[in-house]
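Researcher: Re-running this chain for the archive, since the previous output was lost when a drive failed. Same request as before.
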Amino acid sequence: MKKLMLVCIATISFFSVISAEAASHRKQVYLDQYDLDKDGNLIQSEFNQARQHKFDFADENKDGVVTEDEYVFEYTNRMDKQLEKDRKGQVKQTVVRFKSLDKSENKRMEWKEYQASGKRSFKRYDVNEDGVINEQDPQPVKKEWKKSKKVQTAQEIAGRKQSTLRRAKRILKMPTTHSREGFFTKYDLNENATIDQKEFNARRRQDFDRADEDQNGWLSEQEYIFEYENRLDKQIARTRKAAIKQTHVRFGVLDDNENGKMTFIEFQLSGKRSFTRWDTNKDGMVNMNDPAPEKHKHHDKDKSHDKKKTTKSVAKY
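Model: Regenerated structure tokens:
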């Protein structure tokens, strides 16, 4: 019972860390991981078989148990492969973004071209149009996309599903101004919960000048991509460090008898809970027809107690 509580606490405490295991909390990725015959229906026996395969793969010396080093190594290997895919995708998108901003199509991005997109983003969040962005501005209205009346082919539907799955599997998340929170993180330099034009332009200018390596007043595609790759690699390093740390914590939680060796039975304890969580209609099968599971509910009076237990459970890692 105590170990079960620690599992829940550790999961909640480190939920913000991006990892392949965290991605399993999304149903589409969960099904992709365990639905062996890819029929869209995951039954218990199929799930158990897939879990056994994952366990055996991590058990590098084939002694029937998984040590902490084996567990972390297997996870790190999977993570690095996904990060490599994510990085390639991000760089590819950066090329597309450069071409989009280079309105004159002369393979150089002038300040005015760079700033044009900045003005659009500032206007988006300055909903009341008073020249500053703060709590007085309501959330911007999302654009409503008209659904195409064109009947999609089976191939197009499958392609769209694969595209959605690729996005869901991403581990690498770069800070983005596509959300209000991300916008303030980047542009609220003095952290006073207000962004005015001067502050916004100062940060934009700073970013532009940093990318302009030869200081000639404009950005080449190579400069634009190089600056982004530099930030990308720093984010990858942060992501790896946090995720590996969480993996050590996760092993400590799964190793129920705390002997440094995880058996399949111990490994399956978390597996059974995840299957139960997703099988919300309790028909013994997980598919996209299952309603979304309820969010975990926490009571304030338990917070200090839970925090103390969490600290104790992760201290030795």
